[in-house]
Amino acid sequence: KESNISLACSFIILKELFENLNAKYNDKNKLIANIIEQLSSISFIVLIQTKLLSQASWELLLTIFKSIGQINNIDEKLKIESCLLIMTIWDGIKELKNKEDLDLMYNYLSISFCLTKQEILQKTLMSFTKEICQMEEYKKWNNDSLKRKQLHSLIVNGPDSAVYTIEHLINIWKSSLEINNDIEVRFDCLESIESILNVSNIKITEEVLEDLIKNVIAPSLIWKIGKANNQVRKMGVICLTKLLDNKICNKTIIFKTFPAIIPSLKSCLADDWAPDLRYVSLDLLGKYLVLLSNEFNSDNLYDLYAILLERLDDAQLDIRIKTANVLNALFQCIN
Known about the structure:
- By secondary structure, the chain is mainly alpha-helical.
- It has helices at residues 2-19, 28-40, 43-48, 50-68, 76-93, 99-113, 117-135, 146-157, 159-162, 166-176, 183-197, 206-217, 230-245, 251-269, 275-291, 298-311, 317-334.
- α1 (2-19) runs parallel beside α4, α5 (76-93) packs across α8 (146-157) and α10 runs parallel beside α12 (206-217).
- The chain is elongated, with a radius of gyration of 24 Å.
């Protein structure tokens, strides 16, 4: 505890020095490299000591990049390390800050690196994802894995940049979403996917979409005894809903992937212990019925009808109302 207090005091002293230093920096590259290297060496401590160290280190970096200005001929590796460090610290203080604080940091970073925020995040994500995939570190990730937290923070704060690496990310997501992994690992993975699916005018190839739905999102809906994963299953349903709402999938992909989804979706509809999961699952099923109204045969519809009848007797009023709306969509399919 005493060493953490001393370290936080050092950050504050350095911040004050940079704020009141009028001299020009002869070697900005070396200065930044030294600071990033030292802070990166303790980044895990910074990450977990939120109130004490994360805040102080964030203010220090903000002051440094604000005062140092443009850096000429900066090393590409240093840009990536700087971005990773910033996202690591941000993950520790995001509950104490707001998005404007992160944007301000990237405004100063953009001036120093002569790049836009999206360009910085895109370069970092491409390099970082490639490194993770080559080393296959993601296969051993747990809730406390630092690189997992860094990747999650990069994606949710720069989803428009993550689109360019989605083909590599799918392999990481498949491993992270295995049902025996930590709940936090699985949930963060789906949260990353959702943030990408919210990017406006996103373009993903049909092959990648099919792989994403069948082998990444659909398995996240599976129930397993002894695994309290209702929030994970709910997030999986939300991801599928985003795919439909944002018109990312065409009708061909929706039809091809529906058989992989429906068995687990039925189990979500029948989960008596998770009303919020039942509700979002009903909403998703209703959207599928509207989009694929001409594709269902009588056997499919009868099976769905039996499940929906049970939900008409649900303890939650909003679920009973939603069920009636979904039944209306089902009857439209029959007509």
